[in-house]
Amino acid sequence: MAPAGYAYSILSNVPATAVNPITYQWYRNNVPIQGATELSYTVPGALAYGENVKFYRMAKTMECQGEAEKPSNVITITFEGYTMPVGGCNLVVSGICWADYNINDLYTFASRADMYTKFYQWNRLTAYSADEPLTPAWNATVDTSTTWTVNPCPPNWRLPSQEEYQHLHNSGNSWVVENSGRGNIVPGRFYGYNHTQCKLPNQMEGCVFLPTSGSRSYVDGLLHSKGVIGYYWSSTQVNSGISYSISFYSTASEPANSVNKTYGFNIRCVR
Asked: Is the dihedral of CA 37, 43, 48, 50 positive or negative?
């Protein structure tokens, strides 16, 4: 057992020689790992996810009949964090569990990962409509709190910090258009160690999907960039009127975007 999302070294503790005069070959669940041809191997955080994951190297060993090629240094690891007592968790990054869905109504997760969800302002519990018309009436005044004193997430969940969004960004991400063949009906980004492979709705181990709901203007609440850009609040402020968020679009992910606190952005929770 080992915490998910961290790097681990598998040291050479079984006598064996290289398959050829130069290299070994390491495998993860019987699939060769590109570039992993040394005597020992460091599992990167990008591969440190899943249950009963088997790592080994192919090497030559001496048996009674002579030299034979076979697996050596076999180790099976369950990376903790994906199976949890309540609800489970498909993505753990630096010990933080990321929810599979946005918040839609207050204290309530959306019914699916790939849907446009309601907007919230900094440190407020009002849920503004995901589509036009705007409801309820817009509040253009700034909350100057240093952090979120209210929590729109369900019990035991909270908003991510800017640092946690940075870790999410660093774990890997990739843009997909709507109906991309990955199960998503709206555009967005897959984040996490398995971001290039996972699919909605059920093949999500090692990643989360964030849809591009757009935002509501800090001035009047008008809807902008729906289906083009995703914006999500962090719990970390820049100053009394500005906070950090993550934003992303087709060509980039920006985990330290600083914006006026009266914008309406989406919320993704962690625990």
From this structure: positive
Q: What percent of the chain has pLDDT over 70?
A: 90
- Give the Cα-Cα-Cα angle 203, 99, 78 (nearest 5 degrees): 60
Terminal-residue alpha carbon distance, the chain: 20
CB contact at 8 A, 209 and 217: no
Tell me the three state secondary structure of residue 215. Answer: strand
DSSP state letters, 160-187: PPHHHHHHHHHT-EEEE-TT-SSS-SS-
CA distance 133 to 155: 30
Statement: residue 256 has pLDDT above 50: yes
Count of domains observed in the chain: 2
217: pLDDT strictly greater than 50: yes
Q: How far apart are CA 71 and CA 55, in angstroms?
A: 9
> Is 169 found in the same domain as 37?
no
> How far is CA 181 from each of CA 173, 174, 202, 227, rounded to the nearest angstrom?
17, 14, 14, 17
| Section 200-211 average pLDDT | 92
Q: What is the CATH number of the domain that holds 36?
A: 2.60.40
Task: Provide the β-strand partners of residue 214.
Answer: 230
105 and 151 fall within a common domain: yes
Most confident of 44-48, 85-89, 198-202: 198-202
Claim to verify: residue 62 and residue 190 sit in the same structural domain: no
Please say if the pLDDT value at position 102 is more than 80.
Answer: yes
Q: Comparing C-alpha atoms, which of 86, 97, 109 is closest to residue 49? A: 97
Residues 158 and 225 in one domain: yes
> Element (H or E) spanning 76, and its range?
strand 66-77
What is the amino acid identity at position 6? Y
Among residues 58, 80, 102, the one where a domain terminates is: 80
